[in-house]
Task: inverse folding
């Protein structure tokens, strides 16, 4: 009978039938991963919520409803449902960061837009820096947030 020395490549470990347990575990891990991937392909998108019936990309004109994701400053917000769209409030200008009135204008816009879950946006095309321009309505029957900011002195009218 031949004995295997310390340099031998095969070992007879009790309970493994002479096979390396690390290789066996690697095969099991691989089969598990393949099974999970196969299950994902079979299920497809059936587990996801239905897509909302709102516009994903804002049009150059027209109106639709969006959710306010965040207020950047007194005249810029990020809105969307499926994607994040930067919107510059059309027809107004507010102080920039570091200028007097910046914080107040930003806080006032936040308070106006927090009154409603969905904000109606009337799209006015794109500005000179490529951002979407819009008039925002937090109340269907009332004045726009753009108008309110001007009337209350937080913004100046600005038509390029």
Result:
């Amino acid at each position: 009978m031949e004995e295997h020395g310390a340099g031998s490549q095969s070992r007879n470990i009790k309970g493994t039938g002479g096979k390396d347990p690390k290789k066996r575990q690697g095969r099991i891990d691989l089969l598990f991963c393949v099974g999970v991937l196969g299950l994902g392909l079979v299920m497809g998108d059936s587990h996801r919520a239905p897509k909302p019936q709102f516009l994903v990309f804002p049009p150059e004109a027209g109106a639709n409803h969006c959710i306010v994701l965040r207020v950047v400053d007194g005249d810029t917000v990020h809105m969307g449902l499926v994607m994040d769209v930067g919107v510059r409030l059309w027809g107004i200008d507010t102080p920039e960061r570091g200028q007097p009135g910046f914080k107040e204008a930003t806080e006032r816009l936040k308070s106006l837009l927090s009154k409603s879950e969905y904000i109606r946006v009337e799209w006015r095309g794109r500005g000179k820096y490529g951002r979407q321009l819009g008039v925002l309505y937090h109340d269907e029957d009332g004045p726009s947030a753009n108008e309110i900011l001007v009337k209350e002195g937080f913004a100046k009218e600005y038509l390029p």
Summary: The chain has two domains: 1-48, 61-157. Residues 99 and 157 are 17 Å apart (CA to CA). The chain has a mean pLDDT of 75.
